[in-house]
Write a structure and sequence with these properties.
Radius of gyration: 17 Å
InterPro entries: HAD-like_sf, HAD-like_SPP, HAD-SF_hydro_IA, HAD_sf, PGP-like_dom2
Organism: Saccharopolyspora halophila
Protein name: HAD family phosphatase
Number of helices: 9
Strand content: 5-15%
Largest sheet: 6 strands, parallel
Distance between the termini: 14 Å
Pfam families: Hydrolase
Helix content: 40-55%
Order of helices and strands: EHHHHHEHEHEHEEH
């Protein structure tokens, strides 16, 4: 079981919106809604470049790095105030652990912020974690984050189920060869041949999924 974090396990996309809006205001502008939607599921560097471009500001490497540092600092403050779970997420992680299912966290969020989030979602819920600054720039929608998680687990990606909430994340998991449980949060998701759409994690039968993939293996 490969779990995305923001928007899938925790309702943190709204916190990202706060931080991004705060940065835009800090620079004397406002982030447009279409650009904000493009950021959902994306990594920090791409999001900062989109943000700066949207604000009409220079978007060189140094500018992106400075914006990322500012936003990461604001997100650290917001994460420290507490992360709200997505419906059924805490229960799903507990059930996966009780069933003995192997799990990985596969997030576009940088390691420093992920470590903060793990204080809420629990480090011991995951055998491995893959963060957005640990894939040599090959971030979602590139399949590398999911391929790396499968490598670290020592399993075939085709034997994995990925849980995602964004078009970017779904594309990455599908490109890696994973089956996808798609649960939209901030952005609508379309149906597709390699994904199953649900309204919430509470609707997913993890035991049945585990049995299905055990039989297939």
């Amino acid at each position: 079981m490969l779990f995305d974090m923001d928007g899938t396990l925790v309702d943190s996309e709204k916190l990202w919106t706060i931080a991004l809006d705060d940065y835009a205001a800090h620079r004397g502008g406002a982030l447009s809604e279409p650009t904000r939607e493009l950021m959902v599921g994306s990594n920090m560097s791409r999001s900062m470049r989109l943000l700066l471009t949207d604000l009409g500001l220079p978007d060189g490497d140094a500018d992106v790095a400075a914006a990322a540092q500012w936003v990461a600092g604001r997100m650290t403050e917001l994460f420290a105030e507490g992360l709200p779970w997505r419906p059924g997420a805490a229960e799903a992680l507990r059930e996966a652990k009780a069933l003995g299912l192997r799990t990985a966290l596969v997030t576009s969020t940088i390691r420093s912020l992920t470590e903060r989030a793990l204080e809420t979602i629990g480090r011991d819920n995951f055998e491995v974690t893959v963060c957005g600054d640990e894939v040599d720039g090959r971030n979602k929608p590139d399949p590398e984050p999911y391929l790396k998680a499968a490598r670290l687990l020592g399993v075939d990606p085709a034997e994995c189920v990925a849980f995602e909430d964004s078009p970017t994340g779904v594309a990455a998991a599908e490109a890696a060869g994973c089956a996808v449980i798609a649960i939209p949060c901030e952005v609508a998701l379309d149906a597709g041949p390699h994904r199953t759409l649900y309204g919430a994690l509470t609707e997913v039968d993890l035991a049945a999924l585990g049995d299905l993939f055990t039989e297939a293996a």
